UniProtKB/TrEMBL annotation:
Every ABC transmembrane type-1 domain range: 85-276
Transmembrane segments: 31-52, 96-117, 124-146, 152-172, 207-230, 251-272
UniProt xrefs under InterPro entries: MetI-like (IPR000515), MetI-like_sf (IPR035906)
Keywords: Cell membrane, Membrane, Transmembrane, Transmembrane helix, Transport
Protein name: ABC transporter permease
Compartment(s) where it occurs, according to its Swiss-Prot or TrEMBL record: Cell membrane
Keyword Hydrolase recorded: no
GO biological process, one term: transmembrane transport
Keyword DNA-binding: no
PROSITE patterns linked: ABC_TM1
Main location: membrane
Xref: Gene3D superfamilies: MetI-like
Organism: Actinoplanes awajinensis subsp. mycoplanecinus
Length: 286
């Protein structure tokens, strides 16, 4: 009696192995495509930047081109500068990462609450939009006064700029699920929670990752703003101090690091998006 059952199982093993290899190849191709796109973006930005500097004959005392930044970073005499920039970059990276994760998680939880209870959305969404209208520069001193001038304040500031794009995009996506899919779940007696996690959330994954691609550079900007106005640490403060002391090589290098970091974050989230969609929503993967 066991032979007929064992035969299909043995026949399915090569198919599963082939499928796994296919998924692995697609993952490698997506990674290569993402890295290639990021390198191309950096090359285009550097080319346009250099053309603007040379084409408009900008003041060499105030402006630097990508070649100037590269020479500054690779000069053996600037070992101390490289260490200073590396340390500041690490601080800003931690600030932006915590803000991105905190803001995205808070927005996702809020969007789920909106999808489950419309009264919560009707009550909180106008308040959230009103708060969004307040300039972050005006809110930063108040946030620093409430949460102090440490990591918590930076996380809150970076999380605020992350929160709103994720909240709006995911909320709209959760409501845009085909009505027929929701009705089918209800016909089978599924609870609102089951419908949310089996139908609405998988359908909202593209919107979530699209929002994260937008929010990641914004989290970096929020971290820089907090460092300028609240903590006095990281790349934000280093760039501000460099402007006031006319250490323009350091300032332009900081701008370059922030730009490259934004491109890397965007690319990384795009790669994670494709891998996630291939696993949980293959029909929506590009």
């Amino acid at each position: 009696m066991t032979a007929p059952v064992a035969a299909p199982v043995a026949a399915a093993a090569p198919v599963a192995a082939s499928l796994e290899r296919h998924v692995a190849r697609r993952a490698v191709l997506r990674l290569a495509k993402g890295v290639g796109g990021a390198l191309l973006s950096v090359a285009v930005i550097c080319g346009v930047w250099q053309l603007l500097v040379k084409g408009f004959d900008l003041d060499p005392f105030l402006t630097r081109g990508p070649l100037d930044v590269w020479n500054y970073l690779t000069d053996p005499a600037n070992t101390a500068e490289r260490a200073l920039l590396r340390e500041a970059s690490q601080v800003t990276a931690v600030d932006a990462f915590l803000g991105l994760i905190g803001g995205a998680v808070a927005a996702l939880v809020t969007a789920i609450a909106f999808a489950l209870w419309r009264s919560v959305e009707q009550t909180l969404l106008p308040i959230a939009m009103a708060l969004r209208a307040v300039p972050l520069v005006a809110m930063t001193p108040l946030i620093a006064l409430i949460f102090g001038r440490g990591l918590l304040a930076v996380t809150v500031i970076a999380g605020i700029v992350t929160f709103f794009p994720v909240l709006v995009n995911v909320s709209l996506a959760l409501r845009s699920v085909p009505r027929s899919s929701v009705d089918l779940m209800r016909a089978y007696g599924a609870s609102p929670f089951a419908t949310l996690f089996r139908v609405q959330l998988p359908g909202a994954l593209p919107a979530l990752f699209a929002a994260l691609r937008v929010a990641a550079p914004l989290a970096l900007v929020g971290a820089l703003l907090a460092e300028w106005l609240a903590t006095g640490k990281g790349l934000g403060y280093l760039m501000l101090a460099a402007v006031t002391t006319f250490e323009l090589d350091r300032m332009w290098t900081g701008v370059t690091i922030v730009t490259v970091a934004s491109i890397v974050l965007y690319t990384l989230i795009s790669v994670i998006e494709q891998l996630t969609l291939a696993r949980y929503a293959p029909e929506q993967a590009r």
